[in-house]
TrEMBL record:
GO terms for cellular component: mitochondrion. Keywords: Methyltransferase, RNA-binding, rRNA processing, S-adenosyl-L-methionine, Transferase. The keyword Ribosomal protein does not apply. InterPro entries: KsgA/Erm, rRNA_Ade_Mease_Trfase_CS, rRNA_Ade_methylase_Trfase_N, rRNA_adenine_dimethylase, SAM-dependent_MTases_sf. GO terms for molecular function: RNA binding; rRNA (adenine-N6,N6-)-dimethyltransferase activity. Its EC number is 2.1.1.-. Residues 68-237 form the Ribosomal RNA adenine methylase transferase N-terminal domain. It is an enzyme of class 2 (transferase). This is rRNA adenine N(6)-methyltransferase.
Amino acid sequence: MLRRPASLPLCLNRLILRQQLRTKSGRQYAARDDDEDDKKIRKKKENQEGYIHLKKSRGQHLLTNPRVLDSIVRKSNIRPTDTVLEIGPGTGNLTLKLLEAAEKVVVVEIDKRMVEFLSKRVSERGLENRLTVICKDALKAEFPRFDLVVANIPYGISSPLVAKLVFGDIPFRSATLLLQKEFARRLLANPGDSEFNRLAVNVKLVAEVEFVTDVSKRDFLPCPKVDSSVVIIRPKAEIPNVDLDEWWAFTRTCFSKKNKTLGATFKRKKKVMELLRISKGMGTKDDNSVNGCNYDCSDDEDEEEGMNDEGDCYSSSCLEMGMSSFKEKIVRVLQSGGFDDKRPSKLSKEELLHLLSLFNQAGIHFYDLAKPRDAGNVAFAASDSP
Ligand SMILES: C[S@@+](CC[C@H](N)C(=O)[O-])C[C@H]1O[C@@H](n2cnc3c(N)ncnc32)[C@H](O)[C@@H]1O
């Protein structure tokens, strides 16, 4: 039987009753900032054993439907000898199921309170020897070796986390991830689809993505505003022979205006200037690195930078002098491959690889300070916050 906490108003009591989760030894009460107006009551309850106040800012929506949890584990094809990496285990609903199927589970959780709660649940079952806990931000943590990833991740870090996994140095068989539905659709999108963007093309270069199932918001506690989907990402055995760091910088430029033609994007004065500076080994005007080109993909229209066709934004006259011939070179590359009037959102990765090789043959290269392996610096064009 669930017990109603005595001192609360009835409506709040109902809410908390719905949100009670059982542990073996006690109870966990889970409520949200927005649900509980009486902060004093919350403070008092936080001192009780087993109470965790779930934080929206950390994406703390716990997956509570056992059927969904079981199906995620089943679909992940875990072998008894596997080490599974779980990002954001929360109170451990999925972790306990993973421990039944795998030899070892490594969890990376940012919230100390969750780690304490989870560790207790696991110890109560005598499984602590098979669990490794890393209490850190998953984007900053160094992951140990693992065979698989299975996780209901915080949606706010989906994009850099997927990048960290698929462009990281640790080989793994697959990542079964519960993601925000829209984000999953982007990962699954093909050239020409409205959701197709830089994230999709970058991931497709190195991995296959399979749709598994949609998950209703009602399967979470508390109920989020968005629906979710499970996908499986499988790194490819062989990937194209391309410098991934350069590919990263190249797609950042191509998709900086995903619905503009490549001609319009590459011929913008700022882009020409950046590429020219790189070709001269001078870095960008905004950073001090020699070979760095830190494109800002959010919005970098020339006009907003205070630039005009006379180029009064740059005083470097040697660059100005070389600019028009360099621009012609860029135009020739685009035209030689028929890319001038193409939009990046309609191009396959093969076509983009071809364009990059044409640029390289013409001696034009792309560099980016935000390397894919450094997930903290990664800024995919996609926004994935719920
Ligand atoms: C959506 S909840 C999932 C909880 C649990 N896996 C479940 O399904 O019930 C996300 C979890 O990720 C944790 N988290 C949020 N940001 C994180 C980060 N940057 N690194 C590691 N964990 C994070 C949250 O504290 C929370 O426990």
